[in-house]
Amino acid sequence: MTSTIVVGGRWKSALLCALLTAIAQTATAQEVAGSFEQLQVLVKPGDTVTVRDASGVETKGTIAALSSSTLALLAADTRLELSENDVSAIKQRRSDSLANGALIGLAIGAGASAALMIAVGAEEGEEMEVGFALMAIGIYGAIGTGIGVGIDALIKKEHVIFRRQPTTELQVGITPWLTKQHKGVLVTLRF
Q1: Mean pLDDT score across all residues of the chain
Q2: Mean pLDDT over residues 64-89, rounded?
Q3: What whole-number distance in Å separates Cα of residue 6 and Cα of residue 121?
Q4: Do 166 and 125 have their domain in common?
Q5: Tens digit of pLDDT for each residue in 76-88?
């Protein structure tokens, strides 16, 4: 006994709705630390990062040391000691998540196969075998998943791994500024 699906009326609308839902792009959450203590879980000494300081200047270097309150960065043969308040963001070059590539590939493979089944069913008297349709959707969904994972494995980009949490209080910093030509203090205000 052969099972069939009539592709028309409600079935056609339901399959088109499923196709559009399957093709919708998915988003994955990236883990972003809000403190150096949390950052210690994501990176270790020897990792290469890009640090944006409170004034917006970015410096690429290697982590020499990381504690819950300070970050030592080696950049161009210079060791920078930065406190958590000195850093607004840290980025690291990482591979793209394989999960979103798998989901997008699955959606495209299964969605394209479902669209093809709708088109073929419409031409052949609006009937198709359920087993054949499910098998084709499964096979092309699996192929799409493999292609999506393969593409994502090749993608590397900068991901923000640390972002300083905004403060609602005013922070005042006073630093002596002594050079041969100038003597004074540097006053820093952070909101």
Answers
A1: 79
A2: 92
A3: 8
A4: no
A5: 889 999 999 899 9
Looking at the chain, how many residues does it have?
Answer: 191
By residue range, what is the domain housing residue 21? 4-28+97-154
Q: Are residues 87 and 168 in the same domain?
A: yes
| Distance, CA of 142 to CA of 105 (rounded, Å) | 8
Residues β-bridged to residue 187: 174
Look at residue 168 in the predicted model and tell me its pLDDT.
Answer: 60
Number of structural domains in the chain: 2
Statement: residue 45 has pLDDT above 60 = yes
**Cα gap 28→170, rounded to integer Å:** 34
Query: With contact defined as beta carbons under 8 Å apart, do 186 and 177 qualify?
Result: yes
Same domain, residue pair 86 and 106? no
- Assign residue 41 the CATH number of its domain: 2.30.30.100
Asked if 88 and 121 touch (Cβ cutoff 8 Å), the reply is: no
